[in-house]
Amino acid sequence: MVKCMSIGNCNKYFIYIFLSIFFHILNDTLYGFNYNDSFVDVKFIDTETQDYFSWHDLIHKIFSFIGTIIIAYFFNKYESLASQRETININNNNDNDNESENKDKKTLKMTLIHNEIDDTLYADKYSFTVCFIVIFLWIVGEQLIDIFSLALKDLDFWMFELIIITIFSIKMFKVEIYNHQIFAMWLCIVPCILKTATIILSFFQKFNIKKSNLTILYIDNKLYIPIGIIIYLLLITSRAYVNCKIKWFMDLKYVSPSLLLFYYGITGAIISTLICILTTFVKCDDINSPVDIYDYICKIPYNNETQNNFNYSERYFDSFIFYFNTFRGKTNKGFQSIEVLYEIIIIFLGMLTFFFYKFFSLLVIQNLTPVYLIFSNPIYYFIQKTIMIVYTFIKEDDFFQDDPILYVIYKFCLDLSGDLFSIIGFLMYLEIIELKFGNYDYNLKVNIIKRGIIDSFGKNKSIINEEEEKESENESGNESEEDITLDGEA
User: Fold this and answer.
1) pTM of the model
2) Cis peptide bond upstream of 301, omega within 30
3) Are strands 433-435 and 5-7 parallel, antiparallel or unpaired?
4) Backbone phi and psi for residue 489, each to the nearest 5 degrees, phi listed first
5) From CA 318, how far away is CA 324, in angstroms rounded?
6) Distance separating alpha carbons of residues 240 and 236, to the nearest angstrom
7) Residues 339-383: pLDDT tens digits?
8) Which of 295, 328, 407, 451 has a 20 to 30 A CA-CA distance from 12?
């Protein structure tokens, strides 16, 4: 029986994908994650006060951006020093051989390009402006996607990003799309159907009041479904453009990942701080007002005795005042030293995990393609869901918490199946799984290289045959001349 599929070659840079996912999950674990409150919260430090702190997502982002600035600065300095040492070694190892000297000059030129990237980026006003716009879209898009996941869950058709980023790659990098990649994109229909099924199940979902007093937003107003899907498609289109443009900057403008993260940290810290200052003093709405989108994205202040001096009738997106007031816990007699220590640990680890998550993500884009970064999304979601199952089983001796929300188990299984189908589709697109039927393997990289070698060998063989014929003709001509000369002498 002829094999229909085979496993392609693994790239050494795949390690960056798994490192990016690893640090992403570690970062999520610091603040806790769950799935419709149906599992035990996966959280690094699980105290009541830390639950309150985890709602201050924007403030934690500010600390993470500041940490990114600091770590990226030292990474960039290290790269500059390493580049300078390479230049010195090249100059010290010069010899008198012209070929070796030309090679050293070429290497030195490439080194100087990387050393002077700061000056060239600043000198090129257009590139610097575009870089700033890309980083701005990068930060704002991430924040809006986080807000979207709170208010309009289940409407995140992220699998369409493969098609969107393919279109950008064709436009920016002039890549060709082959049959096996088109087949993989068609396979995205399956997770889309499963995602649609989770939306339908939401309308039959009954919520456990003990865990949540809010239904899903689009259940009460079905108009949110088309609006939410359109908004999300715009957000992932922006993200796909940003990832492709980052690839363009790193490949054509020689901008290093550490330098990009340095600018990213500065811009992110400024934007997040300004937003948090605004939301500290501008409320979302009143707590007793009718249920609307603010009930899903504005969690501050929470119902806590530490906030006796504040008005409980108001709700905020985030607030510096309530953040520092949270350290008092339930005693309201001053800061709790242990909670201060816990929060410092969370902030420090959050800085490290956030930076390395972003750093390895950029290395995926730089050494592979932006498509590989999109490929990491279903793997991340699949691993995250698996961790929730295992962690809940260890804590509760069951796969779900007691009395889960009705139909949530079915929705969870549909989501998990969608992740698996997406992973399979991406593996086909990236030629990690090679299709051996329907001519889908004709334009695989391996087969393209083989045909190139065969064509090259055939061409070289014809050239060799022509040279051999010429040599044989010359030899026969020389022999005939020698014969004539010998006859003349005779």
Assistant:
1) 0.81
2) yes
3) antiparallel
4) -65, -40
5) 12
6) 6
7) 888 889 999 999 999 999 999 999 999 998 898 898 888 899 999
8) 451
